Amino acid sequence: RERENPKQAPASESDLLNKRLKLDYEEITPCLKEVTTVWEKMLSTPGRSKIKFDMEKMHSAVGQGVPRHHRGEIWKFLAEQHHLKHQFPSKQQPKDTPYKELLKRLTSQQHAILIDLGRTFPTHPYFSAQLGAGQLSLYNILKAYSLLDQEVGYCQGLSFVAGILLLHMGEEEAFHMLKFLMFEMGLRKQYRPDMIILQIQMYQLSRLLHDYHRDLYNHLEEHEIGPSLYAAPWFLTVFASQFPLGFVARVFDMIFLQGSEVIFKVALSLLGSHKPLILQHENLETIVDFIKNTLPNLGLVQMEKTISQVFEMDISKQLQAYEVEYHVLQEELIDSSPLSDNQRMDKLEKTNSSLRKQNLDLLEQLQVANSRIQSLEATVEKLLSSESKLKQATLALELERAALLQVVGELRRQTAAEPSGPEPDLARPGPTGD
């Protein structure tokens, strides 16, 4: 049960321990025995990487649940199936540089990656130890990816995606699956430096809310709450920074099956199924606080309801239409010839003040990050000085121990020398004189 692949050699005890540690999360849609058997049969099919499996069968199996201990292997299997069904033009693919080769190089993104390591699943035992096994593997994957895909490099949020993969498979496999999700399942576009795609995604989500949950859309509009206030981290970390691991793992199951539009479906379903609670809140702060902090912890039943709704949804046509709509609106904004100079100035002023506000927010975040770095550096200094004190104390103790051992040695030699002195000889003359 512990092994993912019957052909592999038995895992060492520390590997099994690590695997148990990684997979220690509460499952959404617990997997029944017969569903696990269906998966095991598919996974152990001879020559499976060249066989196209029935899409309906895979869809139904993912819907009924994915066994936690086989999850990494199932994601790889779904990726193989995707490759068989879609032959991509080579321009979409990165250069095929071997992982070990990438690890030998230096990355200019090192500082940004290191800062984010401690913020990625900070309470999970596999990642919480500073520069422990989990953080080192995560660093390697992110470094290798930043070298492979120099346009994206490293972007905040990516560490959570890589972290989820790493909890379910080995380091190099996780790297290949990250590459697959980014280039073939459409995640990469939202991390590009201009962040335009993220803006488009926020617009698309807003339009979907307008279509499916008009009362909620109106409520949020009334309080001037756009999706970017709460949903940007959902997209950039694929829900992993705020939601329970069992839920995030289910979202990944569906992304491997259906691609990145799953993120929209999950966001829409989450907002829809918590609509009555959101509508109770009457100001910007409490609404945003509820969506960001309370909603992710509302329990397994709601989570499972969200997941099953997602399987029934098809929004691909709307997403395409709203992307086109966004570009048309942007062009209209740019091509503003019918506008008077005053109107144009007003528009520019509004854009300007919104950018200033964003700038101030970012500055604030930067100051928080800087003070965090300073406190971490101070902690490191303290640790280093206490380490050197400990080394001195250890040295003094070792010298003391050596001196004591010398004294003990002296005493032993003296004790050993005493019994062989004249005392036993004095006892002998009595009987011989007799």
UniProtKB/TrEMBL annotation:
The keyword Cytoplasm does not apply. Residues 345-393 form a coiled coil. Pfam families: RabGAP-TBC (PF00566). Residues 65-259 form the Rab-GAP TBC domain. PROSITE patterns: TBC_RABGAP. Keywords: Coiled coil, GTPase activation, Nucleus. GO terms for molecular function: GTPase activator activity. Residues 412-434 are annotated as: Disordered. GO terms for cellular component: nucleus. It is found in: Nucleus. Its main location: nucleus. May act as a GTPase-activating protein for Rab family protein(s). May play a role in the cell cycle and differentiation of various tissues. Involved in the trafficking and translocation of GLUT4-containing vesicles and insulin-stimulated glucose uptake into cells. This is TBC1 domain family member 1. It comes from Panthera tigris altaica.
